[in-house]
Amino acid sequence: MQVAILVIGSLLWDDAQHRAEWRRTRLDVDFQIPVKVPIRYGRRSTTRGNTFTMVFAGNEATGQARLIPCISLVSDLKDLVDEAIALWKAERKYARDGEVGSSWGCVGILPRDQNFQFANEWSQYFQEHSHAPIAPVDSKGRLNIPWPVRIGEPLPIDIDILISTSTQPESTLPTAIEIADAWIEQNEGYERYFFENVQCGIRTPDDLKIWRRIEERSPDWLNNPAYAEVISLLREESTQSG
């Protein structure tokens, strides 16, 4: 079976050694597929200066993410678990051996065939090696979102199982203004999370509202030449949207 990782944030671009190694050894990054999925900024991250990172959202909030095929095919439960563990270790550098979740997040799978081979075995493994399900992942380790839709091409997605991580959002979801202000009010480089996501095609419905607030308040880091290309893109999109 062909498995792919649904990436909704920094796992796609973060240059931390353990993440770069995971991408190099586990993913076929040259064949990533842009897809529509329900995502938004919604988790305040203490490791990113209390700015907001990506979470799954209600189905009414359709964003864009990347589906990246795994290099190895999956033929049994062990293969699937190996990919899930590798994903969680990329997400959480110091994860315990065999772990696929903690109090703030977990791995979930979305099979194209809901009655897929070794479904029950996966559920048992998930229950024994995660802290608790984090919605939209349920107690069986299933990711309860619609099957992603490919962007730009009317071609089917030839993947059997998707794997992704779900993280715990804030109890009160932030507004676009609050999301932008969290980046504006710091000066430690954490705004990179927003710009890298946009640059890599990971988008939310709030992106232009966030961008307009940033441009309005004009923080010093807006002059960073590393952001020039993505700022030009956001300005063009903002002008076109009116």
Tell me briefly what this model is:
The protein has 242 residues and is an alpha+beta fold. It has two domains: 3-167, no CATH class; 176-241, no CATH class. It has helices at residues 17-26, 77-91, 119-129, 176-184, 192-199, 207-217, 228-241; strands at 3-7, 33-37, 39-45, 51-56, 63-69, 105-111, 149-150, 161-167.
Description:
By secondary structure, this protein is of the alpha+beta class. It has seven helices and eight strands; from the N terminus they run E-H-E-E-E-E-H-E-H-E-E-H-H-H-H. A hairpin with a 5-residue loop joins strand 3 and strand 4. The chain is globular, with a radius of gyration of 18 Å. The model has no long low-confidence stretch (mean pLDDT 96).
Which band does the percent of strand residues land in?
A: 15-25%
Shape: globular
Largest sheet, spatial ordering of strands: 6-8-1-5-2-7
Radius of gyration: 18 Å
Query: Distance N terminus to C terminus?
Result: 45 Å
Tally the helices: 7
Low-confidence runs: none
